[in-house]
Amino acid sequence: MKRENIKVAILRIEGTNCEEESYLAFKRLGADAEKIHLKQLLGNGINPDERRELEDYHMIMIPGGFSAGDYVRAGILFAARLKSAFKEQLIDFADSGKPILGVCNGFQVLVEMGFLPAFDREITDIPQAALTTNDSNKFECRPSLLSVEDNTKCVFTRKFKKGEKVLFPSAHAEGKFLVKDDDHLEKLKDDGQIVFRYTTPNGTRPGYPWNPNGSLDDIAGICNPQGNVLGLMPHPERVFYDFTDPDWTRKKRSENRGDGKLLFESVLEYVEDEF
Amino acid sequence: MVVVEVKIELKKGVADPEGMNTKKALNLLGWDVNDVKSGKLYEIDFGEDVTEEEALEEVELMCKRILSNPVIQTYQISIEG
Question: For chain B, which domains are there?
């Protein structure tokens, strides 16, 4: 499939606030991205020409923000609304191999929807992981150094090198990733679902603030067992260009490429090849 | 009228930074407290046409699917009376 024909849906509801840079990341790479409000999928109270269908898209991204005011728990209300209307459609979407990306609040939504971690490929009604309040009890807003733990299974990291360090900005108050016990953590490791971990410049185990939230096993991002659904807390779309990297003058790269750009290139190449 | 109260708490062993920070603030203001735990309280009004048993059954499902995340939280359900 040609790049310009790849239709990307950036889903939003009230409180979503990272849709513009997410949209631009795909747009700048030549994909046909579109910001879509949930209402446009539900079809109530909108003009007929604004109506959209999920199945017309090749990829979904749930961007960051504070959807529905982060009430009850971050992401749960957006998750509940999506699931109430489009559960089967979204399951089919993911099963067909089409990519779904959740960044920050989007990661929280995917976890609350049961699309992540989706142990044994099963999407459960009851969440099997949690993104809970940072250990600092503060909104943590700073660049996070991440190591790429997987570049084979996950379709979003194929163009990265395994073990490569990338700098994505974190900006969240509820990013501490937890699963219910050690067995589930082992399962994540065994199935190669851990895609990004927080790290330090010399690669040692990160304490605070390199691990900004106290995440279990320094986990920053995970994918589903099939590798086409990814959720991560830090924001790759905020480092699309070199000059939005806080260290860009020291890094002196030959081209204007921020660390996050490669994630979007990876997934678009995957869609080009597969569909 | 059936009103059900739901109390959401963090599981034992899950860090409670909100509680810890509240304790710190109370200590600073001179209250000598040992521990503070944070949680949430919901009051759910079912109106007149539902029995208590039905309401409790529904709320159990709500807790599992929306109001709590079993990885980190527990819930207690009681009828307001």
Answer: 3-79 (3.30.1280.10)
